[in-house]
Amino acid sequence: MSAFIQKHSVYVTALLCVVTFSACKDGDFYEIRDEYGNVADSRTLSAGISTVYQSGVTAYDTPAGWVTGNLNTRFYRGDALYDNPRVSGDDPTQGGKGPLYAGSSCGSCHSNAGRTYPTLYSEGGTGSGGFSSHLIYITKKNGGFFRNYGRVLHDQAITGVEPEGKLSVSYTEETYAFPDGEKYSLITPSYSVSAWYADSIAPQDLIVDVRIPLRHVGMGQMMALDPIELEELARRSNYPEYGISGRLNYITERGRQYIGVSGNKAQHADLTIELGFSSDLGVTNDRYPLEVAEGQSQMLGYSHYGIQISTQDMEHVDFYLHALGVPARRNVDDPVVQQGEKAFYRARCDLCHVPTLHTRQDAPALINGTRLPWLANQTIHPYSDFLLHDMGPDLDSHYTSGLAQGCEWRTTPLWGIGLQQRVNQHTYFLHDGRARNLKEAIMWHGGEGAVSRELFARMSRDDRDALIKFLESL
């Protein structure tokens, strides 16, 4: 803990969460009070002192209780930079959008710090309202890039510039039945790209990997994960009787090797603030000073505005994401939820969706060097091992990221997952939103996830429904 906390007693209220700190001889003590002012039930503490008792539309977008004073100012500065739309031109505070981009702001794709309703469903692919709530990765079949395109296909552009292409998606649906006769269906997406700005690429030469936004829940805790614990998880994540063997994705950035934890394939070692501004919004910065369309013929008449966001402002956004509270678990005494928790373990979901992890002892740092001691030494419940697992051929994107093969995906953290409907008014899950609800998400599990899928399928309908209720309580 910081010297400030060691020397002072602090009583903090963050919307519906109260955190009390006090100094004691043998170390720091804290307690969290729930929305009724009672000492919080430890079973509900998703993220230690960053747990918030909020279950409405702002459940993902509430500051942790330790965010006070100047930190509060920084949080809301970062929140504004995250949410407020960027515009084209040289406005030093909100300019720089484009010439190619995916959204007008971070919040356009991550509404309320969650997952904006996918334009894959609302508009059949590329959005018409100035943003597309997805990223489109493209490569050659041999893994190389196309001459006139980068790794991301930008399907939005400012006036006078052509988008690189437009995405369309169609779905085929198949109906299945559980052993007890209950029916369910799965939809499989098929992607196509048209209106290429330059070379038209034949479908047979193209790999398209589409991702809808991730929920920005527990970002700070993820950045503070204990690397020793993760390495130990990777060493013992070997269950041959279940066909499970997870591994870490190691990332080399700026000449150093890191453990990858963020992104669908754990392909990043940080929250990619600079990359997000550059690639997603088209806003240049010190780390990415060139426009994403640099070198394209249509850039000849485009005015360059130089660096369009400062590192300090990007750190405000980085702080905002680190300082977001994690929603508390709900309905822990509900008998159906408790029945579902037992079913969760019987289905061996916990072997990958590990309930309890810890943050490291040293304070994690933001992109401009600010350290956050409040994230250190915490017991957290992300329900993830943050390892890569082979999820089978049906979920194979054929797109590699670092060490991750196309069929390998990082275990998705489940905390806050039951609030997505309230926050974003939809229940589309998995990397491309193909699962329309949690039951479908489970039934898409193949490869190392097949054992849980089969155990879930063979349960009684009551137990399957209870397991879903348990997930909705997280």
UniProtKB/TrEMBL annotation:
Cytochrome c domain ranges (all copies)? 335-474
What InterPro entries does the record point to? Cyt_c-like_dom, Cyt_c-like_dom_sf, Cytochrome_c_Peroxidase/MauG, DHOR
Keyword field: Heme, Iron, Metal-binding
Kindly provide the name given to this protein in its UniProt entry.
Answer: Thiol oxidoreductase
